[in-house]
């Protein structure tokens, strides 16, 4: 006889609620605009510097390549956090399901490890 285990979906999925993240009424659109502006500045600023490093052959040295990797990691970090925060500001929704929360935590920790690794390599290169 075989022991078969059936996986059944949860009747009530696991949901986390952001309790300590209070936004006063009426400030959501303003905070969304500020977060969007910050996100665009991060994307454009890092994108321009990466573009310059990639296109200028004089900057193809180890330290500038590591700076380029650090900028790409910063893009990953900003993309991990800011879109969810902007959605929270715009909709006021304070809940996040388990799978998106774990996915966001995974990418945030991956970003942290990548940045620390690049900084360690930059320090060793000096």
Automatic annotation (TrEMBL):
Primary localisation category = membrane
Instruction: Give a yes or no for keyword Membrane in this entry.
Output: yes
Keywords from UniProt, A to Z, are:
Membrane, Transducer, Transmembrane, Transmembrane helix
**Which part of the chain is the G-protein coupled receptors family 1 profile domain?**
45-126
Which regions form coiled coils?
none
**Where, subcellularly, is it found?**
Membrane
PROSITE patterns cross-referenced by the UniProt entry = G_PROTEIN_RECEP_F1_2
A Pfam family reported for this protein in Swiss-Prot or TrEMBL? 7tm_4
Any one of the GO BP annotations: G protein-coupled receptor signaling pathway
Task: Write down the InterPro entries for this protein, in alphabetical order.
Answer: GPCR1_Superfamily_Member (IPR052921), GPCR_Rhodpsn_7TM (IPR017452), Olfact_rcpt (IPR000725)
* UniProt GO molecular function: odorant binding; olfactory receptor activity
Bilayer topology term: Multi-pass membrane protein
Transmembrane segments annotated in the record for this chain: 30-54, 66-86, 106-124
**GO CC annotations on file:** membrane
Q: Does the keyword Transmembrane helix apply?
A: yes
Please state what the protein is called: G-protein coupled receptors family 1 profile domain-containing protein
- The scientific name of the source species is Oreochromis niloticus
